[in-house]
Amino acid sequence: MQDSLKSSSYQQLEQKSKYTNIFLRWFLYFILILFASYFIFPLYVMVVTSLKTMEEIRQGTLLSWPSGLNLESWAVAWGGRGYGAGDTFLRPYFWNSIKMVVPAVFFSTFIGAMTGYVLTKWRFKGDQWVFLFLLFGCFIPFQAILLPMARTLGVLGISNSVIGLVLVHTVYGIPFTTLFFRNYYISVPTELVKAARIDGAGFFKIFFKILLPISAPIIVVTVIWQFTQIWNDFLFGSTFSFGEAAPIQVALNNMVLSSTSVKEYNVDMASAIIAGIPTLIVYVLAGKYFIRGLTSGAVKG
Amino acid sequence: MFKWLEKNLPKIVMAPAVGLIGWFVYGFVLWTLYISFTNSKILPKYELWGFGQYEKLWASRKWLIAVDNLLIFTALFLIFCVVIGIILAIFLDQKIRAEGLLRTIYLYPMALSFIVTGTAWKWILNPTLGIQKMFRDWGFENFTFDWLVDREMAIYTIVIAGVWQSAGFVMALFLAGLRSVEDEIVKAAKIDGASLFTVYWKILLPMMRPVFFTSFVILVHISIKSYDLIVALTQGGPGISTTMPALYMTQTAFHKSQVGLSAASAMMMFMAVAAVIIPYLYSELRRENAR
Predict the structure, then answer these.
(1) One digit per residue, pLDDT tens: chain B, 291 residues?
(2) What is the ipTM of this complex?
(3) CA-CA distance, A215 to A42, in Å (whole number)?
(4) How many Cβ pairs within 8 Å bridge chains A and B?
(5) What are the structural domains of chain B?
(6) How far are the Cα atoms of A274, B45, B179, B202, B223 from residue B195, in angstroms, in the given order?
């Protein structure tokens, strides 16, 4: 399935009655905009709430406009209030997430590219089964591997560390990255590879000279997919790390759940936006590739 | 030696992926399966204990609530996601102005984590300052919307947030499906006098059977695994009323230290997913081979 989004022409229906058509048209836009507001509503509420003071929150409603550009809760969410103990803020955890995401995305993408290359251009007997073997990894409920993984990280001495999370995310990303590259390389004509082999090019030369130069789109799709998945992960982060090594989603959840002081919804909302901004930016800038990953990663995995 | 290396280079390059998945996926699942047949508490014990943990699991009230919630959630989540997804896809397929913008809006929740959106929904749904207060301030003094703190209704708040997060995804799948249909089929139907409604209901939607199938598999998969959203929104509460299997598993393992019991619950989840996924993979593979 492609996300070829060319418009179809069902609209050129015979003009039964002009007025019915105009009415239908308005109805169509009304429904579409209604749903758009349902989808935009939480984001809107998050942004305006983060810009209000607690006093304004108690007096106004969810939708009311903030009195000004009050960025204090953002500053508190990011850098804390500076009174030491018990002052939790997102900055260190944001960097934890960066340190976790960058290597995990790199390794899983690299391994996926290599495996996809072998599975399509160096085919062997039973390669279909190897692919299926890897593909099934996309689907397993992670609860079924949580207990042994916790023990393994303990034995390796990397539980509750960013390195441990890099390992976990690399491993469980491989089925997806392999799937992406395999499905992309399978449409590259094998004749190209055969010709290069006759000319004496080796395994790596063929990869770097022929396949890699045309791989940009699928690399972008894979990197975006992996980045989004790993950045947004909560299950692994909350199971295998706590305290200072936690990634941002875990820290956000802890911040929101902490009931030590008066609930500051504006700070909560600012924190949630900070934790969501990186993936949101990627989505807005490269939505096309994000959707491609979503549909191909989903349709096949 | 060098010759052997050269000949087997592709397999050597593939080895890390196969080895890692073999160990960390298949090996670990087998380990969990084994442990589910033992009487492990905090630390794993290795002498077999039979089906005791499974009997304990299905006698546990909390687990039964979790399964019940999963069924309710899955049914509603499926229905609403698919209906909203199809409506949006069909409507967007009518040469809409600003289609790109609307699509971006419908799909952006997929880019956010359930923790982020759960935080937002928790704020919106809380009775003291959220939607309930908004309506009361608008003059509807008796307006009540306190599902989040109502034992009976809290599970439906999870449905609301879950549908919000995933409906756009179903829309994207169906839109891509609709656009891959040849224009000629639709044109021919119109020449025969079929109305727009008939074209969709009788011709296009039946052609979307694979998309229905795919959406079904993915949504069920998402709902069996759903964990983050519940943690962010209700932590399984009020009481234990919104517990789901994934939450049950982690709580039993890491808070109650009942390793054997939690392994049994993990295996139940594994079997549920496998029951949906294996037929799916089988049919996908067959379709690919037929091509």
Answers:
(1) 778 887 888 889 999 999 999 999 999 999 999 999 988 888 777 888 888 889 989 999 999 999 999 999 999 999 999 999 999 999 998 888 888 899 999 999 999 999 999 999 988 888 887 888 888 878 787 787 878 888 888 899 999 999 999 999 999 999 988 888 887 888 888 788 778 788 888 888 888 888 898 899 889 988 998 899 999 998 887 888 899 999 999 999 888 888 999 999 999 999 999 998 888 888 877 777 765
(2) 0.88
(3) 37
(4) 295
(5) 60-290 (1.10.3720.10)
(6) 49, 67, 19, 10, 37
A114, A128, A272 member nearest B13 (Cβ): A114
Tokens, residue A219: 């690399």
What is the phi/psi pair of residue B48, to 5°? -70, 150
| Residue listed under structure tokens 């079929």 | B194
pTM to 2 decimals?
Answer: 0.89
β strands within chain A, DSSP E: none
Q: Which of residues 165-224 of B touch A (CB under 8 A)?
A: 168-169, 172-173, 175-181, 183, 186-187, 190, 195-196, 199, 211, 214, 218, 221, 224
Polymer length of chain B: 291
Widest distance between CA atoms in chain B: 85
Tokens of A119: 């599975």
What's the gap in Å between the CA of B149 and the closest CA on chain A?
15
Structure tokens at A115: 């495996």
From A10, A137, A291, residue closest to B25, measured CB to CB? A137
Tell me the residue type at A5. L
CA distance A123 to A200: 18
With contacts defined as CB-CB under 8 Å, which chain A residues touch B131? 62
- CATH code for the domain defined by A91-299: 1.10.3720.10
Q: Are A174 and A226 in contact (CB under 8 A)?
A: no
Domain spans of chain A, in order of start: 18-70, 91-299
